Amino acid sequence: MTDLTPLIQGLNRLLTTGDDDLNEAMAEISHPDADWYWSDPVGHCAGAQASLERLFQPLRSAFGHLHRRPELFISGDSRVHPGETWVSGFGHFVGNLQAPLFGLQPHHHLVFLRYGEFYRLVDGKIAEARIIVDWVDLMRQLGCMPLPMELGTEMLFPGPASHDGIRLTDGPGAQDNATVLLVEAMLGDLKAFDPDTFDSAGQSGEGGYWHRDMLWYGPGGIGSNLSYDGFQKDHRIPFLTAFPDRVGGQHYARFGDGPYACSSGWPSIDATHGGDYLGVPATNRAITMRVMDWWRVEDGQLIENWVLIDFVHLFGQLGVDLFERARERASTDARS
């Protein structure tokens, strides 16, 4: 059994400790040569020190006082690479934005900056990190949303309805964890769909993978929805219309922990941009997507699913700089 308390406390310290203690705080939780992969515009940081300089220090400077508010934190043995132990979760960086951050101007108000994280542990310390920050949702909170469409309801990512998402003393889950097996079966059937209705076998209805009261929580630009019909309307149909040939796989980690499972790839989707998506006309370009998923099971069915996509990376492949769009909108609004 692994006690994850020191890790989650150490991650919190990266935001709250004094500048003089920041390197020590990082050394307590990460190997110095660990690879930290952040969503764009940060990208790959070779070594813990690079991650401090390129992400944590800019965050600390922009917010002044900032803290983590995790909503899910689970661990398990990866089914993708047996023998690897991973920790994953999501939550928000919480603080008042007081100074510019990657060119985004502050509004001096409270921000809940959504994040998702996967960490591979070796000897209890981070050897590899993959983190998506929902910059689009930050832009929305700052009033400079770069996408013209919002499909679902934009909201904070709530924690699990069961209120048991912080599992600090649970050891790595078995590779045949029932939750992750259910997820894998669902994903297997989800690959094939009717091009007219966009339905896939076994997903909803009596005996389906998804609970009738399922909640799907999506990233900024997609939003959240209730029920499988809501998921179809607000996410899946627009997504498959835009990327009809999408192929999943290539995950670096997938594991289960009790009623939870998670999976991520960097990238995990290859596709062609064959239709309009969130206001961007089809480019027919080949693209990849970095995606993170977390699921909760209740009564043998999937009832909650949280999803993050590195939209800055995706739209950059479509020729759209979301940060530039946000800055232009903020500048236009300031002049009007």
Automatic annotation (TrEMBL):
Source taxon at top rank: Bacteria
Protein name: Polyketide cyclase
A Gene Ontology biological process term: polyketide metabolic process
Organism for this UniProt entry: Saccharospirillum salsuginis
Gene3D superfamilies membership: 3.10.450.50
Matches recorded under Pfam families: SnoaL (PF07366)
